[in-house]
Structure prediction request, 686 residues.
Amino acid sequence: MSKRTEIATLGEFGLIDHLTQRIQLKNATSIKGVGDDAAVLDYKDKQTLVTTDLLLEGIHFNLMYCPLKHLGYKAAVVNFSDIYAMNGTPKQITVSLGISKRFSVEDLESFYDGLQLACDIYGVDIVGGDTSASLTGMAISITCIGEAEKEKVVYRSGAKETDLICVSGDLGAAYMGLQLLERERQLFKGEKEFTPDFSGKEYILERQLKPEARKDIVEQLALAGIVPTAMIDVSDGLSSELLHISKQSNTGCRIYEERIPIDYQTAAMAEQFNMNLVTTALNGGEDYELLFTVPLTCHDKVSEMKGVKVIGHVTNASLGNYMVTRDGNEIELIAQGWNSLKE
Amino acid sequence: MSKRTEIATLGEFGLIDHLTQRIQLKNATSIKGVGDDAAVLDYKDKQTLVTTDLLLEGIHFNLMYCPLKHLGYKAAVVNFSDIYAMNGTPKQITVSLGISKRFSVEDLESFYDGLQLACDIYGVDIVGGDTSASLTGMAISITCIGEAEKEKVVYRSGAKETDLICVSGDLGAAYMGLQLLERERQLFKGEKEFTPDFSGKEYILERQLKPEARKDIVEQLALAGIVPTAMIDVSDGLSSELLHISKQSNTGCRIYEERIPIDYQTAAMAEQFNMNLVTTALNGGEDYELLFTVPLTCHDKVSEMKGVKVIGHVTNASLGNYMVTRDGNEIELIAQGWNSLKE
Prediction:
């Protein structure tokens, strides 16, 4: 059995010191990190981007199948994704944790290992946070601060008629990964010796458990000299994010079913589960891909970009938001979003 | 009975729109607030301060005696206090909420009313956040961003031997307010018609339920041309905060029992509860006063400042951290801090 050190042996200040002692600041903009009343940053002439996420056990993650190291990694990355979606670069995070006695010091070390790994890969500093007791489940709140040049910040509101709609990577995989994990968890119930069958499904599992943010896409756009007219990250599903852009840009859209990028593992899994593949890709969520619009003149440039697909175009608002199916029908896009409070 | 609108009638996006629609940005540094992947701020040549706090129901607050409007006010103010403790000015907050079905839309409106009131009084913008379901209690995570001129940021680490130790306001009142509320809650149990007896105890209740951050002290210091050598806000108790300054400044301290500012309501309540008054003032916590050190040459200036008291001086680290009692004995200062995880 692995080592278990009770949190009580360290106490509050001891625990924070223990978890944060290995942190080394690497960004020139991080003037002062953990250990004072506030972190101090210096962004000089760049603009500051701030985003925050609250993750609660049982709602956003299930520790039955989400290892704490992966959870730490994912919790950081989903915040980086929001900064990239502004065409910015994440630079710092603060991390607040609510934890109960059932967690050991080693558990929290694993969580911090995941956080730190993500921060090392994406070049981000952990500059502050708060650790406190929780009466029930684990609560994780991360705030990410990033920078962008003033003229290069991309909002959701800048899409124009005739702009091309582009998306990175592929969609629906993380959602199918979650369905698979849930199925295995149900099967596992009551069985002592159970080995879940994950072979050939590694990609969709990784998309669910250890997603990446599209730093590479933001870098490619910069290299190509493209500043998108609008951008958002796909966290609630393609459909929902398209509607955000349309609403805030006062535009409409047409996307083409045949252009929506879907991995074969996602398709195979949807078939096994007897689920509609396109619905999965439109509404699955947790893809953390970038959805953006560019002027028509950028067509050749974006077509050449690795991992980017043109899936449709921006229209006048009066034309609504539709997906054109393979057989030429038009289906209206609807936001599914999150509705945990309805259940 | 007051109106109760179920959150489910609005849905996620509807709820966020509803709660944030009245928000108007007032600071020139707030470029873009709620409604995109991240908020956009522009601090130009000033440094950026970031602090964050996670408040969990049952640990940090009890809705039995803490009205939601007060909770919203307090949740904002305790973060402002951290920014003032860096000698900065709070400018923006992001607010993440985890809520269960037992809360109505009206409940959340009350919470936001409290937040907004605090933001109006202190000149702060709400620029982002996240609202999600919670399986159990309420979770509140607030991140506050503020600014300071580069040369005027005050850390915990700058105290020097012979510096004067100053504290604002008075100590121990919030803690005694909490004791009173807890007593009345115990008495209330099982009783249908119960009117708690709070007359003559308004000050300690207000200190607990609706604390203020010491904006005025930071302004007075600026007017007097004083940049403290070290500063911290008193959230975990005077004793604990003095030890933070000593540890980070590599110094020691002597404070004088007779100099510790205590309100008469605090003293009366401690007497009723048969509690040691000085222990209460040293370890009570949640005072949100400012504890700071200034060079000896500032003696006359700080002595004249309203609401500031000199309580001791900084010594060489080898002399340790002690309180000199009224009868001339020396008692070593110990950090009590938070130890909810020990229970």
